[in-house]
Amino acid sequence: MAKFFEVSRSNFYHFVHRKRSKRAIENAEYLKKIKSIHERSRCIYGSPRIHAELKKEGMICSRRRIAKIMRAYGIQAKMYKLWRKTTIAKTHQEVAPNHVNQNFTVDAPNKTWASDISYVATGEGWLYLAVVLDLFSRKIVGFSMSSRMQTDLIKRALQQAIINRNPERGLIHHSDRGSQYTSDDFKRKTDQHEIILSMSGKGNCYDNAVVESFFHSLKTEHVNFCKFKTKEEAMDSLFEYIEVFYNKKRSHSTLGYLSPQEFETTWMSQQNIRVLAV
C-alpha cells in the first residue's frame, strides 16, 4: 500500500498515530452541538441561527467557522422553496385606511396585530387557516381553521387572540382588503372591542409582509414536506407547528435570534427591572 500511494512507511505510521490538533478536537465538539441544534430545529436552521443558538449555550466561535463545519458535513437548512401568496383580495366594501404603512416595529405587546388567511391541501380538500400575529414579538396570538373561507374563520381567530391577550382599547388590527376583513360582520366584531381597523394598499403584499413571512415559513419549512390525508390530520399538524414550535422554539433574526415567547419573556423581565429601579 505504501508503494501504491508512493509514501514511506514511516510517514504512514506517523499519520495513523499522530494526535489530533486542538482545532480538530474543538470542531468535533462543535459538530456534535450543531447536529443536536439542527435536529431540534426540525432541520430548518442554517448557520446564522445555529451560531446564535451556540452563543446562547455559551460556546464562543465565529459564524464563518460554523458555516464551514456545516458545509464539510453536508448540514444545511431544509427548505421547500415553492410558495405563492395564497389569497386574493377582491372587495367592493368600505376599506379602512392603512395605519401601519409598512412600519412593522412596535415597542410593546398588543398594540398592533396583523392578520391574513392561507390554505393547505389535504386529501379531503382545502383547509383554510386564519392567523392573528402580534407585530411586537411576531407571536401568533390567535388562529382558526375551517373548510370554508368565510368571515366566521377570521372572527374566531380574532376572538381567540382577544381571550389570550386581553388587549386594551385602541389596538390596531391590520389586514389585506379581503372580503372577509371588509365585511360588516367583522367590523361589528372589532367595534365591539374598540379595535381600530387598518388595511393594506390595493394589491400591495408588502403592506402585510410580516404575516406573509409567517405563511412562507409555515409552507416552506413544514407544510410542503407533509401529505395530509385528512383535514383533521392537517389541523393537528398546524396546531403543533404554531403552538409548540413556532411560538416557543423557532428563533427569529429580527428578534435577536429569540423565539417569540422568549422575546416577550425577556421584555417582561426588563420591564419589571425598570419598575423596581424606579
Provide a compact summary of the structure.
With 278 residues, this protein is α/β, with parallel strands linked by helices. 44% of the residues lie in helices and 13% in strands.
Write the layout of secondary structure elements.
Elements lengths: L1 H4 L3 H9 L4 H19 L6 H10 L6 H10 L39 E11 L2 E10 L4 E8 L4 H15 L6 E4 L8 H9 L3 E4 L9 H13 L9 H16 L13 H18 L1
Parallel strand pairs: 1-4, 4-5
Antiparallel strand pairs: 1-2, 2-3
Helix pairs in contact: 3-4, 4-5
Textual characterization of the structure:
The chain has about 280 residues and is of the alpha/beta class. The chain folds into 2 domains: about 1-70, no CATH class; about 110-270, Ribonuclease H-like superfamily/Ribonuclease H (Nucleotidyltransferase, domain 5, 2-Layer Sandwich). The protein is about 45% helix and about 15% strand. The chain has 10 helices and 5 strands. The N and C termini lie far apart (about 75 Å). The mean pLDDT is about 90.
